[in-house]
Design a protein that fits this description.
This protein is of the alpha/beta class and 162 residues long. The chain folds into two domains: 2-127, Ribose 5-phosphate Isomerase B, Chain: A; 129-162. The chain contains six helices and five strands; from the N terminus they run E-H-E-H-E-H-E-H-E-H-H. The chain has helices spanning 12-23, 41-53, 68-74, 88-98, 112-124, 131-161, and strands at 2-7, 27-32, 59-64, 82-84, 102-106. A five-stranded parallel beta sheet has the order 2-1-3-5-4, sandwiched between helices. Helix 4 (88-98) links the parallel strand 4 (82-84) and strand 5. The chain is globular, with a radius of gyration of 16 Å.
Length: 162
């Protein structure tokens, strides 16, 4: 699997996760402060999320201090379902029930061992094929289309008023 990894800070944890992903057999490319610092979490998140959204990468792993900002920013990109995970069970659920395509982790709260457990759960759990779970994801896709179209129309109206 082709995985993008981005962060606003390069830390021991980011290095461990990149190495672990490679050991798992994934093709990994790094972004943000993992390449060159400084890097804004908002920009790293959107850059990486766009790469997943367009299909250039299968999935991604993102980091910031809390994990919250980077997951919020990634979720602004159409087609992205970023999940902030602090443990393996949350990671497993995010993949199974939410078909999450970007894993976000906190640089502050996640230990090296827990990060490895999160990765194992994430990459070993396929999305659910249960009817209700599939319907939920389909509903989100439809809502995203509708809301994005509405937003675009609103933006056009605002720019015409200027």
């Amino acid at each position: 699997m082709k995985i993008a990894v981005g962060s606003d800070m390069k830390t021991h944890l980011t290095d461990v996760v990149v190495d672990e992903l490679k050991k798992m057999g994934h093709e990994v490319e790094i972004f943000g402060a993992l390449v060159k610092a400084p890097a804004l979490w908002s920009q790293v998140a959107v850059e990486v999320a766009e790469k997943v959204s367009t299909g250039n990468y299968d999935q991604a792993v993102l980091f910031c201090w809390t994990g919250t900002g980077i997951s919020l920013a990634a979720n602004k990109v159409k087609g992205i379902r970023a999940a902030l995970c602090h443990d393996a069970e949350t990671s497993r659920g995010a993949r199974k029930w939410n078909d999450a395509n970007i894993l976000a982790m906190s640089l502050r709260a996640v230990s090296e061992q827990v990060a490895k457990e999160i990765l194992e759960a994430w990459f070993s759990t396929p999305p659910s094929t249960d009817r209700e779970d599939v319907e939920c994801i389909e509903y989100l896709k439809e809502a995203e289309e509708r809301l994005m179209a509405s937003l675009s129309h609103t933006d056009i109206l605002k720019s015409e008023k200027k």
